[in-house]
Amino acid sequence: xxxxxxxxxxxxxxxxxxxxRDGGSSRTSDGRLDVKLSLPGxxxxxxxxxxLFAVGWSACFLSAIKMVAGRMKVRLPADLAIDTEIDLGxxxxxxxxxxxxxxxxxxxxxxxxxALVDGAHHECPYSKATHGNINIVTNxxxxxxTNAA
Length: 149
Prior knowledge:
Blueprint lengths: L14 E4 L6 E4 L5 E3 L12 H24 L8 E11 L2 E11 L5 H14 L1 H6 L4 E7 L8
Parallel strand pairs: 5-6
Antiparallel strand pairs: 1-2, 2-3, 4-5
């Protein structure tokens, strides 16, 4: 697989991190994000890189679905949502990530939902960056969400 060269930089995110995932902190250059860090699964008030990755990828992927839907002229439901799960694990002597993107597309025909999800993976920079590098499972539900009384 060859790397596609970037023709134009649209945005550069800048962050400063100290201390790492065990009690450190990260702050973006514009101050919009300022977080304390903690190890996954431990008590504490901080977040961890896996949670931040899940949030970033799901936000990007949802926007990519909207782009693809616009091109396909598909009206998306107001309750479109993505629940992303990022696993941190080990293999051999190193750490690895794997992911599940659980996309809720209530009221969308399954074949259309599949086309939206497939197209979003071709648009989303997070999907492009991870494709072939980590295990990714993408699930989608098309049934309306029911609220239990």
